[in-house]
């Protein structure tokens, strides 16, 4: 049973436009959410996180929004750049338990 | 430079053999993790350790074993009991209590059964 779901396997966006990646979760005990970026044959790199006490966190071009009532979070990238092309993973944890990851969304930013 | 090192980058195993994947970190992190990535499957947790000489099974521990004799090292053994070991294996580490910073991952080991 998937606790973290990324229902869009892929997304294509034009350079300069906004990229919106979505993530849904089922476990109401999750209290920390993170986004990771991954290039092929490399390990994921941490991008941005949000705790359940907030509904928004921003870091440069990246903003994460959390809607607890809907059990939904999204990552916004503005403006999108070709170097943003990668697989993005949503992850969540409850207390001190290990991160649970979604299946990822492959973002392609087209110049 | 502090970081987490996985070796080897590529590993080939014959059916019926055990192989050990190395993971070393010099970040002074308490916790270490092993994840497996298959195409379209995301990252699935194999084992994790939050302190030296202690570790717990993750969601897909069958056919794997680990040890945590030193804080810096968390090797993963893929045994012959693992039915489908071909995958990309990722090791990670984290600071206990610093949840907002997530995990630091190694660059991975691709294991192929031949």
Please describe what this structure looks like.
The complex is a heterodimer of chains A (111) and B (114). Chain A has strands spanning 4-5, 10-14, 19-25, 32-38, 45-51, 56-59, 62-67, 72-77, 86-93, 100-101, 105-110. With 111 residues, chain A is mainly beta. Chain A is globular, with a radius of gyration of 13 Å. The termini of chain A are far apart. Chain B contains no helices and eleven strands. In chain B, strands 2, 4, 5, 6, 9, 10 and 11 form a seven-stranded mixed sheet that branches. In chain B, strand 5 and strand 6 (54-57) form a beta hairpin. Chain B starts with a strand and ends with a strand. Chain B is an all-beta fold and 114 residues long.
List strands and helices in order, with pairings.
The complex is a heterodimer of chains A (111) and B (114).
Chain A: E1 4-5, E2 10-14, E3 19-25, E4 32-38, E5 45-51, E6 56-59, E7 62-67, E8 72-77, E9 86-93, E10 100-101, E11 105-110
Parallel strand pairs in A: 2-11
Antiparallel strand pairs in A: 1-3, 3-8, 4-5, 4-9, 6-7, 7-8, 9-10, 9-11
Chain B: E1 4-7, E2 10-13, E3 19-25, E4 31-38, E5 42-51, E6 54-57, E7 64-66, E8 76-78, E9 87-94, E10 104-105, E11 109-113
Parallel strand pairs in B: 2-11
Antiparallel strand pairs in B: 1-3, 3-8, 4-5, 4-9, 5-6, 7-8, 9-10, 9-11
Strand coverage percent of chain A: over 45%
Q: What proportion of the residues of chain B is helical, as a percent range? A: under 10%
- Number-wise, the strands of chain A total 11
The two chains with the largest interface, and their residue counts, are: A-B, 24 and 28 residues
Oligomer class: heterodimer
Key words describing this protein structure:
heterodimer, A: 111 residues, mainly beta, six-stranded mixed β-sheet, 54% strand, B: 114 residues, seven-stranded mixed β-sheet, four-stranded antiparallel β-sheet
What's this model, at a glance?
The complex is a heterodimer of chains A (111) and B (114). Chain A has 111 residues and is mainly beta.
């Amino acid at each position: 049973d998937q606790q973290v779901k990324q229902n869009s396997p892929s997304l294509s966006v034009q350079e300069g436009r906004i990229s919106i990646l979505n993530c849904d979760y089922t476990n109401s005990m999750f209290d920390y959410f993170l986004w990771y970026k991954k290039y092929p044959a490399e390990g994921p790199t941490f991008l941005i996180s949000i705790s359940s006490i907030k509904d928004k966190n921003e870091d440069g071009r990246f903003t994460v929004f959390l809607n607890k009532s809907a059990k939904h979070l999204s990552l916004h990238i503005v403006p999108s750049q070709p170097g943003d092309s990668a697989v993005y993973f949503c992850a969540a944890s409850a207390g001190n338990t290990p991160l649970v990851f979604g299946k990822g969304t492959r973002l392609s930013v087209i110049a | 430079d502090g970081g987490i090192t996985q070796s080897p980058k590529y590993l080939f195993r014959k059916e019926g053999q055990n192989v050990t994947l190395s993971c070393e970190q010099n970040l002074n992190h308490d916790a270490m993790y092993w994840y497996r990535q298959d195409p379209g499957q995301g990252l699935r947790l194999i084992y994790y350790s939050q302190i030296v000489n202690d570790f717990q099974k993750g969601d897909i521990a069958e056919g794997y074993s680990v040890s945590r004799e030193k804080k810096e090292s968390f090797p993963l053994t893929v045994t012959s009991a693992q039915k489908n070991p071909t995958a990309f294996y990722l090791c990670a580490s984290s600071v206990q209590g610093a949840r907002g910073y997530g995990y630091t991952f190694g660059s991975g080991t691709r294991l192929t059964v031949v």
